[in-house]
């Protein structure tokens, strides 16, 4: 993938130097509050390998987010397919993020997500980009709203990959951004 640069961030493929940050994020109780698992170091390293290969193959994915000024990896933001959710149409793109807690509340997720929306709509050309989170995950849904996504309660769902042992994490709220709405906002700010 060709790196995407925003005012403060570089969105790029994963590098070996990102492994420690990614492990810390995936084992942090605050970050993973709405996930039914915590990843071990081996699982985290394997996941970075999967994401790196996916980005290499597709040209996009959940990419590392790096602060331009310091070179520090702060987590990931990106687009991915939703093949793991059979009730969504083939080719549906999801936007998502996960940052280390010390970088929350600084606008990094929104800044990077806006860049990915531009890439998605201008380069990949879908009619919509979606996002979803555990219903109680207000931090993530707030980002969805800040980047112009709209809740679509008719598409809320119980996530099929959340185990029955975590019933409170099954209900997911669904957000989307239609291409026409993104284009209208873009024209309004030009």
Q: Uncertain runs with pLDDT below 50, 5 residues or more? A: none
Helix content range: 25-40%
Shape: globular
Please give the count of helices: 5
Strand tally? 9
User: Measured on Cα atoms, how large is the radius of gyration?
Assistant: 16 Å
What does this structure look like?
The chain is α+β, with helices and mostly antiparallel strands and 190 residues long. It is 34% helix and 25% strand. The protein is built from five helices and nine strands. It has helices at residues 19-27, 41-58, 108-124, 138-146, 179-189, and strands at 4-5, 9-12, 62-67, 73-81, 93-99, 128-134, 150-151, 157-158, 171-178. Strands 1, 2, 3, 4, 5, 6, 7, 8 and 9 form a nine-stranded mixed β-sheet that branches. The longest helix has 18 residues, at 41-58. The protein is globular. The model has no long low-confidence stretch (mean pLDDT 96).
What labels would you give this structure?
190 residues; alpha+beta; 25% strand
Could you give a short description of this structure?
With 190 residues, the chain is an alpha+beta fold.
Summarize the helices and strands and which ones pair or pack.
Elements: E1 4-5, E2 9-12, H1 19-27, H2 41-58, E3 62-67, E4 73-81, E5 93-99, H3 108-124, E6 128-134, H4 138-146, E7 150-151, E8 157-158, E9 171-178, H5 179-189
Parallel strand pairs: 5-6
Antiparallel strand pairs: 1-2, 2-3, 3-4, 4-5, 6-9, 7-9, 8-9
Helix pairs in contact: 1-2
């Amino acid at each position: 993938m060709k790196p995407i640069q925003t005012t403060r961030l570089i969105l790029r493929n994963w590098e070996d130097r990102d492994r420690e940050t990614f492990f810390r994020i995936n084992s942090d109780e605050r970050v993973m509050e709405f996930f039914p698992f915590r990843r071990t170091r081996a699982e985290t390293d394997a996941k970075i390998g999967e994401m790196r290969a996916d980005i290499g193959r597709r040209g996009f994915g959940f990419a590392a987010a790096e602060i331009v000024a310091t070179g520090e990896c702060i987590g990931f933001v990106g687009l991915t397919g939703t093949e793991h959710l059979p009730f969504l149409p083939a080719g549906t793109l999801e936007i998502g993020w996960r940052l280390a807690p010390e970088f929350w509340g600084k606008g990094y997720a929104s800044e990077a997500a806006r860049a990915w929306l531009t890439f998605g709509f201008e380069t990949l050309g879908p009619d919509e980009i979606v996002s979803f989170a555990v219903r109680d995950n207000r931090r993530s849904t707030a980002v969805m709203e800040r980047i112009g996504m709209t809740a679509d309660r008719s598409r809320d769902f119980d996530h099929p990959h959340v185990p029955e042992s975590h019933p409170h994490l099954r209900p997911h709220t669904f957000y989307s951004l239609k291409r026409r709405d993104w284009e209208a906002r873009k024209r309004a700010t030009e």
